[in-house]
Write a structure and sequence with these properties.
The complex is a heterodimer of chains A (268) and B (713).
Chain A lengths: L21 E4 L9 H5 L5 E3 L4 E3 L9 H5 L5 E4 L5 H10 L1 H6 L3 E4 L8 H13 L3 E6 L5 H7 L5 E5 L5 H8 L4 H13 L2 E8 L7 H11 L7 E6 L5 H7 L13 H8 L6
Parallel strand pairs in A: 5-6, 6-7, 7-8, 8-9
Antiparallel strand pairs in A: 1-4, 2-3
Chain B lengths: L2 H25 L30 H15 L33 H9 L16 H20 L5 H34 L3 H17 L7 H19 L3 E4 H14 L5 H14 L3 E4 L12 H13 L4 E6 L5 H14 L5 E4 H9 L5 H5 L2 E2 L5 E2 L4 E2 L6 E3 H14 L6 H33 L12 H4 L10 E9 L1 H17 L5 H9 L7 H9 L10 H18 L6 E7 L5 H6 L29 H12 L9 E5 L9 H13 L4 E6 L2 H9 L8 E3 L4 E3 L5 H13 L1
Parallel strand pairs in B: 1-2, 2-3, 3-4, 7-9, 8-9, 9-10, 11-12
Antiparallel strand pairs in B: 4-12, 5-6, 13-14
Helix pairs in contact in B: 1-9, 2-5, 4-5, 4-7, 5-6, 6-7, 7-8, 7-9, 8-10, 9-10, 10-11, 11-23, 14-15, 14-17, 15-20, 17-20, 18-19, 22-23, 24-25
The chains are: A alpha/beta (268), B alpha/beta (713).
């Protein structure tokens, strides 16, 4: 789902921040035919020395350049779909989902910024016997999360930092509501997986992980908890979307560091 | 496993790697299966021609050559091995010509060339023996069977037929005797007591199986090895059988009698598998619908896991398959990443074969014993994997004719012409098969496979000449995606979007996209709707081509000849592509065509595995021959934690109608490095198409084909 109320500086899916479609440009695929430049109604595309340049202030995401790109160097990230349309896509893979005891996970961005759609879609999934999961930052008002409970089998939520102020500094919002929502989820009986993305220079210390685990201690028996190591696979997206990557010089978290920190978590 | 036995297997494995390197060094590269054969001594044996053209043809010449070769064929004994014998000569390939010119097919040549058909005339083997016959009779029993039917079929030709088979059996027995003598001689001077014992046991085993039907697991394996060494030498026949069922009773009796331990059984299986990568099947239903998985099935996998060489083991996926066997086989695939095992899909295969008018009981007996093919052991003659129609070429012929007509170009007209030429191509292929069947006995009899078939000895007729019980003749289409995507690109970009014109496309493909603006045209065409994406124009055209092809092939059926369609290109993607100019799907002139039933690489951005599995399940011709899915799995996905998911994809593909899955799991970096310096990666095995080969043994163009396929997928 497109749209997110957080702006985590390490986000691997920056294309999900805004709710509107965005043009993605992969310069390695560009053959410099200049067709995109010619068709853009807003003059947003110019030719650079080794690639095309998109002025994101002028670009409206109309997608005309994408339509005429002959080598898929341009693509439009984000489109409007109806729940039934999305279900038709899922149905194509239904045999595999059933055979593997899999399901559908709604992720983003923050799915609960589009609760009506999400609820309607997950209701279709449940009606067809498909396991459902929501990957949410758990920062939305509880009433919105509560509405999803009857159609959600599994919640996947992150707790990134223990300190509220630091949380706001790194993600754009504080963590008080998140912690409260996690508790409410466990009280509701929902199946909950909490993860902490471990980011070098941000929370990759034993002290920070222990502090997060301390917050989860009262509900430790009602959730599973894991650490996710920071990687750089999403870096290319920033460039292709014309977005600034604040973590561009940060290396991936080493496997050894991740294994060491795992020993400090609530489930050891 | 017992350390000593495991060390022996590992020593045999190392030796095989060294023998592979020697083959490359002495004989050069080979774009075919890995074989168990080893380099023969120089100048030991030459073919004996019987025709002015320098080749040899017919019953007597084949028998003379085979017997002559057997009489001098070197002995091979390795004290680490449970079995003796290795094959060395590709006798059938040593001929100057493979078709007797006294039976020309000039009336077909024009169309064969026009459509770039691989006609199969003069090809051999590619049907399954029934090892039960040999295991129950032994060599003397086969001689007695011949004698019995000699009294029944008394024509001069039939008597001659029996004579040559007797000669062939005696020749094999002579070869075996020399091994017995050599094993005993080696034992006399072997200082190590364990190796000496093994040599004496080897002699004893062979002293029995030289004439009698086997009694034990070791004897049964050795019998099987002798037959397939002889059959391989004769004409490269590599068809095996349902190995677990074949050997189960011997294994059970041995264990019950305390003759062997399970570790010894694993050792024997490992030695059998290293001897030659014959095509074996595990699991699956018997004719009564009962699963044939047994303890031995798992021990065979265990042996395969230890040796991990090039292996052609297929696990037969069906609803009643022991789930543990499927899980174990997927674990082996993921762990070893060496392209084995493969997986066949019983549901579609049985149901499809029954549509030819056969019973379920018969259909269940058809097993995967070749690159892409199924065969009823000992019952059918098929020309499996030997007759192929280059659909990309047929498309090209149709396109060129369209340009010559006065009518305006259109996909409707192009389709009409494609149909006309496809009909002609299939008709030509079928005519070629009929010509082959009529004259093959004067070219090359099936001297060895006749012995393990039901019918040839009973009737006194070669398997190609009416001796077989059934004639289920295979015609495969190749390059389906090229044709389908070309139609789709034209419909989408020229007719629907009007982004291109017929003139632009024609000029560009005639210039191989090197004309002004050609690269842009090419990219527009390349990025059109592909076969492989559900609901796409490419899929629409692929299904349309499939339906026509199936109808064409089936229309060739006659009283006792059933023609069965499939999609498979074997190793011909490069050579087929060399005959085809640039195509409207954006393919450059002379470049390889698409592989079998697979969409072109890069056909979808996300979800390739599931899209591939769905698309190929959907495109199946549906009459019991396969359209395999060639699956290139990323090593980052093919890990232990994803075994269950991989298994689910395999099962779902079969449930949706799939028939055969060939899997490669190759690391991109390793493959690129191996392509630059193949000899630095002597153990790297790839499943090229249905067959496995050592990567270092393939030619540069073939290696590049695999690299391109991996990179683009």
């Amino acid at each position: 789902m497109k749209g997110c109320n957080m702006r985590c500086k390490w986000c691997h899916n920056p294309e999900t921040w805004t709710r509107t479609p965005q043009v993605q440009y992969i310069k390695e695929k560009c053959i410099h035919c200049l067709t995109c430049l010619q068709v853009c109604p807003n003059g947003a595309i110019t030719e650079g020395p080794d690639s095309m340049i998109i002025d994101r202030k002028k670009c409206t995401g109309c997608g005309l350049c994408v339509k005429f790109c002959c080598n898929n160097a341009l693509s439009l990230v984000g489109k409007e779909v109806a729940t039934e349309q999305l279900w038709v896509e899922i149905e194509k893979d239904l045999p595999y989902i059933r055979e593997s005891n899999g399901g559908v996970t709604i992720s983003g961005g923050e799915p609960l910024m589009q609760t009506e759609f999400v609820k309607e879609f997950l209701t279709i999934c449940k009606r067809n016997g498909v396991h459902t999961a929501i990957e949410s930052n758990a920062s939305m008002p509880w009433e919105m999360m509560k509405e999803m409970l009857p159609v959600t089998d599994l919640w996947l939520c992150d707790l990134k930092l223990a300190d509220n102020k630091l949380h706001k500094e790194w993600t754009g919002i504080g963590n008080a509501r998140i912690i409260d929502n996690l508790k409410r989820l466990t009280e509701s009986g929902a199946e909950l997986m909490v993860r902490t993305p471990v980011i070098p220079g941000v929370n990759d210390s034993e002290r920070e992980i222990e502090a997060i685990c301390q917050l989860l201690q009262p509900i430790r028996d009602k959730l599973t908890y894991s650490l996710l190591g920071f990687h750089t696979l999403g870096f290319g997206k920033y460039e292709s979307l014309g977005m600034d990557n604040e973590m561009k010089d940060v290396p991936a978290l080493s496997r050894e560091k991740l294994e060491d920190l795992k020993k400090k978590t609530i489930h050891g | 496993m017992d350390r000593l036995l495991k060390d022996k297997l590992l020593a045999l494995r190392q030796k095989k790697l060294a023998q592979t390197q020697e083959k490359i060094r002495v004989e050069g590269l080979l774009d075919e299966d890995d074989y168990g054969r080893i380099v023969p001594p120089m100048g030991l044996w030459e073919t004996i021609p019987n025709h002015p053209d320098g080749s040899f043809y017919g019953y007597d010449a084949w028998t003379d050559n085979f017997c002559s070769l057997m009489s001098v064929h070197p002995v091979y004994i390795d004290p680490n091995d449970a079995f003796c014998g290795r094959w060395m000569y590709f006798m059938s390939k040593m001929r100057k010509n493979k078709w007797n010119p006294d039976y020309p097919y000039d009336f077909l040549k024009e169309d064969i060339e026009r459509y770039n058909i691989i006609c199969g005339i003069g090809e051999d083997a590619h049907f399954a023996p029934d090892f039960h016959i040999g295991l129950s009779l032994g060599w003397e029993g086969l001689l007695k069977k011949i004698e019995q039917y000699r009294q029944v079929n008394t024509s001069a030709e039939q008597q001659h037929f029996y004579d040559i088979h007797v000669r062939a059996i005696h020749a094999v027995q002579g070869w075996i005797q020399r091994h017995i003598d050599a094993a005993r001689a080696l034992a006399k001077t072997e200082p190590d007591p364990i190796r000496r014992r093994n040599l004496l046991d080897m002699a004893e085993v062979n002293q029995w199986v030289i004439s009698q039907p086997p009694r034990t697991l070791r004897e049964a394996c050795q019998w099987i090895i002798w037959f397939h060494l002889a059959s391989r030498t004769y004409n490269r026949d590599g068809a095996g059988g349902q190995i677990d069922a074949l050997l189960q009773s011997y294994f059970e009796k041995d264990v019950k009698a305390g003759r062997i331990t399970e570790d010894e059984a694993v050792y024997y299986m490992g030695c059998l598998l290293i001897n030659d990568p014959v095509y074996w099947q595990l699991g699956g239903p018997d004719k009564n619908g009962h699963d044939q998985t047994s303890r031995l099935s798992f021990l065979i996998l265990e042996a395969a896991d230890i040796i991990n060489t090039s292996l052609n083991i297929t696990v037969r996926v069906w609803d009643g398959l022991d789930k543990r066997l499927l899980r174990k086989s997927v674990e082996c695939l993921v762990k070893n990443k060496n392209g084995w095992p493969r997986f066949s899909g019983d549901k579609a295969l049985v149901k499809g074969f029954m549509k030819n008018g056969y019973t379920a009981a018969l259909a269940r007996q058809r097993i995967a014993v070749g690159c892409n093919w199924m065969s009823l052991p000992g019952l059918e003659y098929t020309l499996n994997d030997l007759v192929k129609i280059n659909m990309a070429k047929v498309f090209e012929v149709a396109y060129q004719e369209m340009l010559r007509t006065e009518s305006a170009c259109s996909t409707r007209l192009l389709w009409e012409l494609f149909v006309k030429h496809l009909d002609k191509a299939v008709g030509t292929a079928a005519a070629g098969i009929r010509h082959h069947l009529k004259y093959q006995k004067y070219n090359e009899p099936e001297l060895l496979l006749n012995l393990l078939s039901h019918g040839p000895i009973e009737k006194g007729l070669d398997a190609s000449d009416g001796g077989a019980e059934y004639y289920n003749l295979a015609i495969d289409g190749a390059g389906l995606a090229i044709a389908a995507d070309s139609f789709a690109a034209l419909e989408q970009r020229v007719e629907n979007e009007r982004r291109l014109t017929w003139k632009m496309v024609t000029e560009s493909i005639e210039a191989d996209f090197n004309n002004r603006g050609g690269e842009i045209v090419r990219n527009i065409l390349r990025n059109s709707e592909h076969y492989g994406c559900e609901g796409s124009l490419g899929e629409k055209w692929a299904l349309k081509i499939r339906d026509r092809f199936v109808a064409d092939v089936r229309s060739q059926n006659e009283s006792h000849h059933v023609f069965i369609p499939g999609f498979f290109s074997w190793a011909n993607t490069v050579s087929f592509g060399e005959h085809v100019q640039a195509t409207p799907n954006g393919r450059k002139a002379g470049t390889p065509i698409s592989h079998g039933a697979n969409p072109v690489p890069g056909f979808v951005v996300d979800g390739a595995s599931l899209s591939l599995a769905t698309a190929i399940a959907k495109i199946q011709p549906g009459y019991g021959n396969t359209a395999p899915m060639q699956w290139e799995l990323d090593p980052s996905f093919a890990m232990d934690k994803n075994v269950e998911v991989i298994e689910s994809i395999i099962k779902t593909h079969m449930d949706l109608g799939g028939t055969l899955i060939n899997v490669n799991i190759m690391d991109k970096e390793t493959l690129l490095k191996a392509n630059e310096n193949p000899s630095a990666y002597p153990e790297l095995v790839v499943r090229v198409t249905g067959f496995t080969a050592y990567f270092c043994m393939l030619s540069p163009s073939f290696r590049q084909l695999i690299v391109d396929r991996l990179l683009e997928s």
